[in-house]
Predict the structure.
Amino acid sequence: MLWQCTIQDYLVQQGLDLVLQDEKPSDMKESEWSTIQKKAVSTIRLALSPQIKVTVLKETSPKKLWETLESKFASKTLTNWLMMRMDLYSLKMEEGGSIIDHINKFNEQVSRLLNAGETIKDEEQGLLLLASLPKFFKPFVQSMIAGRTTLRLDEVTTESKDDGSCPELKEDSQILKEKKGKSKEASFANVITYEDDLL
């Protein structure tokens, strides 16, 4: 999941990722290990939203903290799979909404399922994305499936951003390019939010 990847990146950047292993390295002093663990706990907590942080304040071990977060937000139960599937299948782009934002939301939903061990074929992802578009995009959807026997997700996302019949798509594409020119630094804040409360 995105939050797992983000926190792991923070730990790796600071040389703290070893705290997620089971035991202290044999060549490391106990005092050094204790300091590293405290730094890791602090780093992980800084990546949490206030609503999530308050639920894990008592955790002092980085490994235990990590396992607690995984049990809350990365559980692989049948119920969670069902809820995530329902979220994906019911996802609809709002009339007048941003296609870029919608594609990002769609990819997030797919990533949650993939990280929970589910398998979603690329063609199914492409069809689901097309089905999630509003009626305004019907000509675009028809052009994407006309005469095809297969369809890839990357084809849908690329064509949706470049399609000349939908001016709104071109505007979104330009906005995305402008945003990419700005700062790429990620903030620690709100990596995990209650958008994951179904997990």
